Amino acid sequence: MTIHxxxxxxxxxxxxxxxxxxxxxxxxxxxxxxxxxxxxVITDGPGSIARMMEQAYKAGLxxxxxxLSVGPAAxxxxxxxxxxxxxxxxxxxLSYLRRHLFDAWAIEDIRHLxxxxxxxxxxxxxxxxxxxxxxxxxxxxxxxxxDPRGVSNKAFLPMIRAGLFEYVRGVLRGGWDVVRLTERxxxxxxxxxxxxxxxxxPGTTRxxxxxAKIAPPEDKLPAAVYxxxxxxxxxxxxxxxxxxxxx
Length: 247
Prior knowledge:
By secondary structure, the chain is α+β, with helices and mostly antiparallel strands. The protein folds into 2 domains: 13-76; 84-231, no CATH class. It has helices at 13-17, 19-38, 45-70, 88-91, 94-102, 153-161, 183-191, 208-214, 221-231, and strands at residues 81-82, 120-124, 138-144, 147-152, 165-167, 177-181, 193-194. The strands form 2 sheets. The protein has a 5-stranded antiparallel beta sheet with strand order 4-3-2-6-5, sandwiched between helices. Strands 1-7 form a two-stranded antiparallel sheet. A hairpin with a 2-residue loop joins strand 3 and strand 4 (147-152). The longest helix is centred in the N-terminal third of the chain and has 26 residues, at 45-70. The radius of gyration is 21 Å and the shape is elongated. It starts with 12 loop residues before the first helix and ends in a 16-residue tail after the last helix.
């Protein structure tokens, strides 16, 4: 489900408190404004821009008043991480990841837990001997039969840096990488938000019970990666093979 913000929406104080979130909110509203302008929905462009700027100004005032009223001695829980905190390229990939995990495009369509193998995403390396414009490293997500959809490294890396996925090292060779979904990443894809990385404690997410049912233990990760690679037809199964084959 791609995040969409109507350019007429109210801007909340929480939307501008953090620089990254503020940038994403403004970009999303600007994108919607341009689309509406192109479709002829907007008849008064300067007036619409003025209203958006006024909304941002009021949100800034509200945020400043909130900071003053809370005071330096008060403490508050860390802000929740939502989809809007991710860059636009990453947000556009979330619907494909939900389809990969839950066979559902949107949160409200999720009906079952994902298969354990779906917790892993493999990155295809660039092909030797070809120009960069003809080949690129992509993360492969599956949602239509055996044909994967490639998610660019540019879109996927911010999700790794945000702690929604983490690398599984020392399992694959041949230039391939693999990541696994984290407990926080599962909660965000399942519900739309998760706790901050700083405030995270294992087993404290709202979806912790679901996660416990599907997450493979650490000592079973190599075997789980191997089985996922076989299921995706990236690894040719071999009898009694070590779970670290070359793809």
